[in-house]
Amino acid sequence: MTAVTVQAPATERFPRPRGLVLAMLRLHRSALWFWLMLVTVTAGTLLWATFPGADAAWAEYTDLGCDRPRPSLGCDDPGPANVRYQTLVTLGTGFLGILPLLTGAWAGGALIGRELENGTAQLAWTQSVTPARWLAAKLAVPALLLTVGTLALTLLHRVLWSSNSTLLGAMDWREWHDNGVFQVNGTVATAQALAALAVGVLAGLLLRRTLAALGVAVLAVASLVHVLDGLRPHLWPTETVTAAPGAPLASDGMVVEDGALTADGARVPFPACMGEPACADGTGITGYYADHHPASHFWPLQLAETGILLAVAAAATGTAFVLLARRLP
């Protein structure tokens, strides 16, 4: 009699990377839907402002005669079309501005702190998921979603800024180097979101408490953004322009430092009589100077700040993996 050996089917190791990603998306589906909603609403806002909103605002602006050499006094009080346009542009720009704070708060509180506090992470580690794989998924999936969404909104904002430059300039809108505009017109917005994600994850691993990690992450991200805002003018060499007394300084970019010049070339503050007749004769001033960044410095400044933010993100990520490994047996 021949014995028949029935081989048991090979059990599939659970969870595979795909299963881990799906489990994480299911666990944080509320945050995923919230992110998709914000990206969709912001994209719609920017698109409306770029095309029909800008057309209506410009038509209203020209109907009032505000584009003429001598505009009327009514141009100081924009009409409803211009108010709607400015409101939507502000909302679209403002969302990208607060994105780092939202990302850091969510990463520190919900993504890491809450799971360590209620034991969800420890349960996952008993289901054939190593802590390193768990943390890698926690970082990789949100990083991918943040990068795709933020870059898409940045491109839409650049289209808005480039196609409506005449309208924005006529309405005395903000310059390219203002904090909000500079941040969302290049790669800095995406780098800020990635740095906030890494900092929030590190705060969650350090504190292991939802509210504490949320608060520390928001404070750390806000401090990082504030420090880089102040450091930005010094990330690239400036250009210097000079002018004789009575002549205007041709500095239409980001002015870092300005003042007056004496006969021996020394830099001194602007005199108190600035603008008065014969001011330069009585003070020994021979000219004026300004160290500034012209518009051509936009991308060098963008890439320098982006590099710093990505370095912060890499350092926080590496520290998070080391900390996780040292805290586990």
Automatic annotation (TrEMBL):
<keyword id="KW-1133">Transmembrane helix</keyword>
<protein>
    <recommendedName>
        <fullName>ABC transporter permease</fullName>
    </recommendedName>
</protein>
<feature type="transmembrane region" description="Helical">
    <location>
        <begin position="32"/>
        <end position="51"/>
    </location>
</feature>
<keyword id="KW-0472">Membrane</keyword>
<keyword id="KW-0812">Transmembrane</keyword>
<feature type="transmembrane region" description="Helical">
    <location>
        <begin position="306"/>
        <end position="325"/>
    </location>
</feature>
<feature type="transmembrane region" description="Helical">
    <location>
        <begin position="134"/>
        <end position="160"/>
    </location>
</feature>
<feature type="transmembrane region" description="Helical">
    <location>
        <begin position="210"/>
        <end position="228"/>
    </location>
</feature>
<feature type="transmembrane region" description="Helical">
    <location>
        <begin position="88"/>
        <end position="113"/>
    </location>
</feature>
<feature type="transmembrane region" description="Helical">
    <location>
        <begin position="180"/>
        <end position="203"/>
    </location>
</feature>
